Amino acid sequence: MTIAQLTIESWCKELSYELNEQILGYWMKHTVDEKYFGFIGEISHDGIPLPEADKGLVLHARILWTFAASYRNEPRVEYLTIARRAYDTLIEKFVDPEHGGLYWMIDIQGKPVSDKKQIYGQAFVIYALAEYVRATQDKEALDWAKRLYGLIEKHAYDCVNLGYVEALARDWSETSDLSLSGKDLNERKSMNTHLHVLEAYTNLYRIWKPAGLKAKLKELIEVHLDLILDSKSEHFLLFFDDEWQSKSEEVSYGHDIEGSWLLYEAAEVLGDAALIERVKSAALNMAEATLKEGVDKDGGVFNEFDGEHLDDTKDWWPQAEAMVGFYNAYQLSGDQRYLDAAHASWSFITRFVSDREQGEWHWQLTREGKPFFADDKPKVGAWKCPYHNSRACLEVLERIERSNLGVKESAGEKHHK
To answer: What backbone phi and psi angles, to 5 degrees, belong to 299?
Structure first.
């Protein structure tokens, strides 16, 4: 056996352990809400559950995606049980019975705390439902995903300027409350929402291929390339008005490297050869810009740069996305630097990000790799979910396996174990 094979074998064993024990094991053991329903809305950075915390749509959708994808990868009954619990919670507690779609946030009694229709959240449910269908072939879930797709297209699509508005009121009318979170600008459109609508439509197109969805997916890819990606810097612009005038200067390194591989995946699933080549070039340019500007000497990825000041803290999710994004760039180019960067990302994760005492990953680290503990950096929360880290493990494991087997199929034809 060669050194390369030993290295690959070791990496796969580490990824599998991280996925099944550190991440999924933590969520199964600590987050199921036996007192109320669904999953506990928040667990503090030091492992203390906040049982009365409100419950977020994104948290529950991401749990559904995570455990459906993990079940598809390795059909353990306990993974399907958790996925089904998340599915049932979404349909029984988050669905707006009057206007359709899902509430953004609910309390422990199941009453809406924030009833606006945040398009980011609706998209994540589509993403999760599509994965659940891939894992189970559940027709009800597919029908529900189709309905959500129809609601987004009916109410949020900008037929004049393209793209999607950030949020709408409960009844899908206009709202002035657009921002995704407290740190986001209250603008009409954002990179972040469009990236995750792209992600959702990609997964939906894997299992349902009407001409309309195909056209929308192609348009979304082109919107990212033409309107969201700054071709001079090879970074995503972050916030926009209706006419796509940029409203911010910040660079988000995690979103750039995440977007590089999600765009290529979308183009592969779509199957448009010309678009695949165009996206390949953009993906490699984005990966190169991130590698040059956003990666520290220890392999960790910085959070943001505002044009003058570097936020050199390192959140958990850009590290996960960097491992996949750089591995994707290596697959596209054969450039050893990208494989080295993916390995460095994994090394940084295992040394600093993964919480070897409690399980799961720390939210944020200092530049030196020390966990940054704060009340707004919980172990579990509305934004602290198992999706980025579990997906990174699953993606790299599957890519390595396909490569070792000599499999050449597109991302849209990934095998079902």
So the answer is: 95, -10
Q: Which amino acid is at 295?
A: V
**397 phi/psi in degrees, rounded to 5:** -60, -45
Helix (H, G, I), strand (E, B) or coil at 161: coil
CA triple 185-188-193, angle to 5 deg: 80
Domain CATH code at residue 252: 1.50.10.10
- The CB density around residue 330, as the number of other CB atoms within 10 Å, is 20
Q: Burial, 98: exposed, middle or buried (Cβ in 10 Å; 0-12, 13-18, 19+)?
A: exposed
CA–CA dist 170, 164 (Å, integer): 16
- 45 class by beta-carbon count within 10 Å (0-12 exposed, 13-18 middle, 19+ buried): buried
* pTM for the full predicted model: 0.96
Tokens representing residue 162 in the block: 């393209």
Residue 206, helix vs strand vs coil: helix
The pair of structure tokens assigned to 145 is 């995903």
Does residue 343 fall inside a structural domain? yes
232 exposed, middle or buried (CB, 10 Å; 0-12, 13-18, 19+)?
Answer: exposed
Domain residues for the domain of 90 are: 3-405
What does the pLDDT look like over 129-164, one tens digit per residue? 999 999 999 999 999 999 999 999 999 999 999 999
Q: Beta-strand (E) ranges in 280-397? A: 304-305, 310-311, 314-315, 364-365
Q: Is there a contact between 399 and 332 (Cβ–Cβ < 8 Å)?
A: no
The two structure tokens encoding residue 114: 């924030």
Residue 415 in any domain: the answer is: no
pLDDT in tens, 190-203: 999 999 999 999 99
Q: Number of folded domains in the chain?
A: 1
Residue 68 lies in a domain: yes
- Identify whether the C-beta of residue 255 lies closer than 8 Å to the C-beta of residue 263: no
Distance between start and end Cα atoms, the chain? 26
